[in-house]
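Worked example 3. Consider a protein that binds zinc ion.
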Amino acid sequence: MKKCVLIVALLFLFASYVSADTDRWSKYDSRHFIIYYKNAPLNFVKNVSETAEEYYDEIPRNLGFIRYQGWTYENRAVIYIYDDQDEYRIHAKNMEWSGGMANVLQKEIRTFPAAAGFFDSTLPHELAHLIFREFIGNSHIPLWLDEGVAMYQEKAKRWGANKVVKDAIKRGKFIPLSELTAHRLSREKTEEIINIFYAEAASIVYYMIVELGESRFENFCRKLSAGISFEEALQKNYGRFRNMEDLNNRWVDYLKSQ
Ligand SMILES: [Zn+2]
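Given these inputs, the predicted complex is written out as structure tokens:
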């Protein structure tokens, strides 16, 4: 399963992660994106540009964000396309398991053409991080919500996640939401735990959007963007959930009924 590195806060750790060799990049402009690339063929870059513009329209619709404003030409997002995985890792000093990184503060994505399922997975996943954070701002939310929203844009993962989580429940490997919230995706985590983290993130967001309703989800996110805490937004928006544990229990009931 492909994963990404998501940067949502100003961390000194990441300040040195990205090299500043912008002079060697070629530039391709579109309405909402600036694409920097090196040796990638121009028709590939054009294809990235067109596909990114399509996702820019599609992703807010998928999330039920009917009043999404987006960003202006002056504040376009930037996509860096490295030639290959080795170059991506050297320049981004990235964790080896990632296929892309999204820095929502800088509104930029870094990836490479051979990243797993570039057009169907990596691109919509990383773009969703930027679009979602453009909508909710710098709110303090669990990582699983950011990642679940991004996974929801990868159609194959969207449909497949529930089965992985049900299997984890059966095997006693399921991680309750309260524990999932405390998780950090560090190198120390096993591949199995990382996979369960992403599957649960995709499954709970699927449950919130599809089963609990798109307009509810939009209102919930709007509350987050207004600075209301995650738990309070949950209570105010979904009256039946007093806390994250209630949400967890209803989601598990739903999975067991499938
Ligand atoms: Zn991600």
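Take a moment to read the result before moving on. The first strand starts at residue 3 and ends at 7. Residues 3-136 form a domain with the Glutaredoxin fold (CATH 3.40.30.160).
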